[in-house]
C-alpha cells in the first residue's frame, strides 16, 4: 500500500465521558496526517455523523473515538452498513472488548490470566459486600478507568457501602466486582501483529484513574518498565494473544496488574483497549517512539493497515473480529 496522499476523515469527540481525550487524540492524528501531505476532514461526532461521513467521501475513516458509542460496536456497525473503510477493530471485536465480562468469557478459556469476580446490581451493594474487602468496582463497559472505585476495610464508603457515598454505584445500575490485586500497573501496546514494549505506570497519588491518565505530571511512565525479563515477555505474549483472540485490528493496548511478590503467578490482564488514546500523554505513541516509530509514522501505519485490509480479496475493510 502506497503512502498516499490519502483523504482521511478523522472521527473524534462524541458524547462519552472520554470526549476531551478523543478530541485531543483526533486533533493529534489530523495534524500528523496533514504534516505528511494527506487531506484531512475533521468530524466531531454528532447525531448527523452518517450524513457527514457520506458527504466527506474520504478514502478511509480514522476512528479516534473513545468510549460509547465510538468504541462499543455502534459506530462500527453504522460504518459497516455504509460500506466505509475504517481503522481499528470492527463490530464484533468492539462489542466484546469494551464489555469486561464478555472479554473474560472470550479469553479465560484460552488460558489468559484475568481476575475473578462477577457483575452485581448496584442496589445490592447497600446491603452487603459482593466480595471480601479489598475489592474493586468498575462499570462493565467504560474505559479510561471511568467510574472505578477501590473498596477497602478502612475506606470511607461505609460498611456496607452507604447509598450517599460517592462512587460508580450512583451512575451505573450494574458494576463488575473484582478482587483487588496489589502491586504494579503495567501496559503493553500491540501494533498489527507485534507487541511493542511494557510501560509501568506510577501515579503520584492514589491509583491510575482518569485524572492520573490525562493530567500532565500526575503519573510517571517508566518505559521500558523496570521489571524482570520473564514478566516483560509474559506481558507482550499475553497482549498479543488477547489481541489475536479478540480479533483486534490496527492498534490495541492491554492493561495489567502485577503482584510483584508472586512472580508470574501474580500477573493479570485487566482489559484490552481497542481504541487506545493517541494524545500527547498516550501510551501507544510513547512505546512506538521508544522503538523509533515517530507519531506521524504510527498514524500512517494504522491507516495503511485499514486500507490494506480493504484492498485484500476475501477480507473486508472494516476489521471484523
UniProtKB/TrEMBL annotation:
- What reaction gets catalysed by this protein? 2 D-alanine + ATP = D-alanyl-D-alanine + ADP + phosphate + H(+)
Q: Which UniProt keywords apply?
A: ATP-binding, Cell shape, Cell wall biogenesis/degradation, Cytoplasm, Ligase, Nucleotide-binding, Peptidoglycan synthesis
Identify the pathway: Cell wall biogenesis; peptidoglycan biosynthesis
ATP-grasp domain ranges (all copies): 104-304
- Recorded superkingdom: Bacteria
Main role?
Cell wall formation.
HAMAP family (alphabetical): Dala_Dala_lig
- Name the record gives this protein: D-alanine--D-alanine ligase
Which organism encodes this protein? Sphingobium naphthae
